[in-house]
Amino acid sequence: MSETKERKLPPPAISEETQAYWDAAGKGKLLVRKCTSCGQAHHYPRTICPFCFSDKTEWVEASGKGTIYSYSVMRRAPVPYAIGYVTLAEGPRMLTNIVDCDFDKLKCDQAVTVVFKPTDGGPPLPMFTPA
Amino acid sequence: MSIKGKAYIAGIYEHPTRLAKDISLAQIHAQCAKGALEDAGLTKDDVDGYFCAGDAPGLGPMSMVEYMGLKVRHVDSTDTGGSSYVLHVGHAAEAIAAGKCKVALITLAGRPRAEGMATGTVPRSRGGTPTPDDPFEFPYGPTVVNMYANCAMRHMYEFGTTSEQLAWIKVAASHHAQYNPHALLKDVVTVEEVVNSPMISDPLHRLDCCVITDGGGAIVVVAPEIAATLKRPKVKLLGASEFIKTQMGGKVDLTYSGARFTGPAAFAEAGVKPSDMKYASIYDSFTITVLMQLEDLGFCEKGKGGAFVADGNLISGIGKLPFNTDGGGLCNNHPANRGGLTKVLEAVRQLRGEAHPKVQVKNCDLAIAHGTGGSLGLRHGSATVILERE
Fold first, then answer.
1. CB A43 to CB B250 under 8 A?
2. Which of B312, B284, B282 is nearest to B189 (CA)?
3. pLDDT at position A106, please?
4. Which of B141, B250, B252 lies at the smallest CB-CB distance from A83?
5. Residue B340 sits in which domain range?
6. Using the beta-carbon criterion (under 8 Å), do B135 and A14 form an inter-chain contact?
7. What is the pLDDT of residues B19-75, one digit of tens each?
8. What contacts B12, CB < 8 A, 6 or more positions away?
9. Residue pairs spanning A and B at CB distance below 8 A
10. pTM value surpassing 0.80
11. How many domains does one find in chain A?
12. Which ipTM value was assigned to this complex?
């Protein structure tokens, strides 16, 4: 089954802590939050590192490349969609949608690349499509 | 301090309704409380501790303590979704062991059917201040079913688990439900019927999903000196454990649940092992939930759950590990979309020898009840209790 109809995407509820992430998304850039103390990137982004609890974290631009960790095609929805986790090249796994593809041909560990899809009145959402 | 032997389950009650159009939420809570207290041989005035979770109306325990006319000196409204009530049994034992109460009442009730709630297939609406995860999840459309499906998809990919193996879990539940007059689904189903039922969210079919019902239940946990005065069979708490499994800052691993931690901890406290269990109540929001928890609790190796559940191994009288002999959430009942409390109820029935004769396990002296609440594929609370017939 291929994606034909468009889903209407709700806007993200932006907090002060993650405004920069969504501003970058508006410019077609995917950010990840990285800790300069332990060196690890995490997701979703926080100012205090969830691994070492250091407050020395910063935004870095992600390559936009990743692989599908897992996914599911939500058939029982007005417009079926694929939701899953993508393992970013930078390390963290993020929840996202896999779009612009034949849902029946998706596979775990398949290579994907970021695309941005408009929301209903908010910044666009980073999603992924087969590379 | 251990809670081993410090508390007993003295009373239980499961509301018979599966569609509560003409009963209020508070009323179901109170009817369940009344039923469990009568089962124990106690009265409302004996209750000095009250436990509830997010399904109770109002702020924490306050509305229900008032509605039921209780006078309590200890309350706990820890909410870990459907696992809350398994966790509450452990917390009640802790409170009893610490001298904070002697008769603890735990209630659950809900009316998702009567209220027409789209339980599993629509993202839950956002209310109040969004959680920090919300902007990074909600817009993508996570639902209950599609996030459990993500776990199933990865399990199949890594371990070769099949839809037919998952189907055996539903088949076993249906074999038990046929003897439960209150079960929502009483028909025995086959593996073929499960895998040929409509796909809801790959790879989970309609019959991989639990039922949506109204209803409720209650549990009375008491101090040893109270249990000694009561006439009912004595069910002793041997061990309890809880854990919150998260996305770990992006180090997401969907192949295991929090049961990986609660199982070993509860078994260690109890001084028993998985192979000692005569009966298991295992949270069954979906077939995959059961399979992963059985692995994590130590009933089989990680990745071998598919082979373990196949060929009727969970059917009472046929397999090695009788599970959810009331039909569980998959067939019987999933009140308030929270199945932890009913898991404890059927474990107690088995230990008392009060399960239906067709599913009663012979010489059932040791049992486990385990719950998962929240979302297996996002973040969830796990709780385990080990119980013994004294």
1. yes
2. B312
3. 98
4. B141
5. 8-115+210-389
6. yes
7. 999 999 999 999 999 999 999 999 999 999 999 999 999 999 999 999 999 999 999
8. B36, B39, B217, B218, B219, B220, B344, B345, B348, B349
9. 121
10. yes
11. 1
12. 0.96
